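Got a spare moment? Tell me how you read both lines of this record:
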Amino acid sequence: MISFAPDTGVWLLATPHTSYALRVDETGAPCHLAWGPRLTLAEAEELAVPRPASTSSFEGRSPVGEELPVDGGTRYGPPSLQVRFADGSRAFEWQPTGHRVDEGELELAFRDRLYPLHVALHYRVRGDTDVIERWTVVRNAGEEPVTLLRADSAAWTLPPLRDYRLSHVTGQWSAESQLRRGRLPYGETVLTSRRGITSHHANPWVMLDSGEATEEHGRVWSAALAWSGSWRITAQRTPDGRAGLTAGVGHDGTNVPLSPGEEFTSPPLMGLCSDGGFGAASRAWHSYTLGHVLPHPDELAPVLYNSWEATGFDVDEVGQKALAERAAELGVELYVVDDGWFGARRSDRAGLGDWTPAPDRFPEGLAPLVETVHRLGMSFGLWVEPEMVNPDSELYRRHPDWVLHFTDRPRSELRNQLVLNFARRDVADWAYDWLTRLVGDHGIDFLKWDMNRAFSEAGWPDRQDGADRLGPQYVRNLYDVVDRLRADHPALRIESCSGGGGRVDLGILSRTDQAWASDNTDAADRMWIQHGYGQVYPARTMGSWVTDVPNQLTGRTVPLRFRFHVAMAGALGIGGDLTRWSEEELREGAALVAQYKKVRPLVQHGRLDRLSPPCDDAVSVVQYTAADASETLLLAHRRLTRHGAPDLPIRLRGLTPSARYREARTGAVHHAGVLGEYGFHLDLPPGDWSSTAVHLVRESE
């Protein structure tokens, strides 16, 4: 998987379908050679022949093409590593000091030629994925402090192409994961979060192609950062026809202090080169996430019920038991009590931080409710927001210094709350202590871990360098609390939530089981949100609810069947007020839950094909297929009916050639060749907001 040519200094990393080649050049700098189709070592060496240097004295080194561009010499592109030493000097000069190869991992070690600063570039390849993992370790081996003005995880270089297109997502609260595709402009394009969290407004992944890739065809290069705090990705396109990107923690204006003997390890930045268009790229990311990121990838996410939209803050034992009875009858497997169960929490103005059951609402604590839920055959889950505090709380009155703040500056409130400083070990330990007691004492099976506001006044007055240390240390302590909690309670499962989809990334998914994609549960809007989410993250991780109409956020009314079919594209949940559902709605809902359970393995572990993207007046179709192609599921949705619009057949993908597939509902049999080459007519019900789920099972020989 990793080979080396000593004569030319070329390293070659091989994945199942791609190669990645680099070398250390004559100046000691690690330089990129190739990233694409498979190469032999001899072929990679041919690429190491130096290109003629630019004849212009205005150019310097190419802004792309190094494995970790540094600030120094005649480099004028965005640096991945930018250093300020104690004497005020800047720049970094590469001096190789060795390498290490160990079971698919390559480490290239360097130091600065003058200062005792060490840098190690790490690469990892695996035998079952084309995703390459990269990260960087920077160590201060001297006796003076060093400041990392920028410390990215890695830089990726694309081959010269005639054009470049950038794909990414943008959004905001309740409108996350809106897919954007457009020509990569010349110069630098920066995607970032300055909010202390992954953010609703962007997500730390990008895809690049020549502008010719489609859902099914073309080569796509992509990268994703495994980090749950502020981050920055800079993609650049140079006038000489090159493109690349660099990514890492923090945003503009943030520093990472390194004391003597201290080291900084960046989060992994994963890269993928894939053929087969955007669909193949997505499937490769899904497979990687299921195989190497999620803690329990083989499990099936349960059908859950969440009480929030039914009750708001009006939570008590009697009402929750009544909802639990209805949920169990519907076929729900996990019952989750949302906000409002603790302290003086009667609105969002008070109570955050006081994590004990409200005695007027739960006179005997949570135990009777938990016992009822378990008796009904469901697991029990609870909403928590450990990183937040209301100023109107006992916790804040005891520890006003525990929040992010600057001395003598205002403490800006959003949602009437402040952010606890998880970078402080005492705050993180406090959160771990009450969480592990809460879970252990009550037999809680599931936590919905929320985080409902961005950072502001992100200071740490107790530390001289606190404002600079806060960002990375906050995230690392957050990860540590979750890791310790799960070690204490191996059966505990956790959902990541941040006001909806504000904290979705490969870092948080490596220690949680699913994510709440958006607070917007309107099925019509969710089609676009889920389309963007699934570009990188698998359906197994995507919490999707069926809620009441008119929708609380949009006021839109769509049929129950349509709402279910949209939510069935992920980890199905229900969030309506079941005490108000009619008997007909309960029967229809129970039937759709039962249908979902039959096809759930396909959705959560199968191959995703986006046969037709979301649109206003045409049919949107996603297909999920078993790994062995033994069965497949179509989920189809039509928002609006346009008179005279053609009824086009849908061509399926990934079926066994020459096999026959039987529709589970109607018994009709179809040849795979016809389904794939000539298409399948969906037979949608007439009218607006129509939908269907078609389950096809391969017949035995």
About this structure: The longest helix spans residues 466-488. The domain at 304-605 is CATH 3.20.20.70 (TIM Barrel). The mean pLDDT is 96. The chain has three domains: 78-292, 304-605, 611-698.
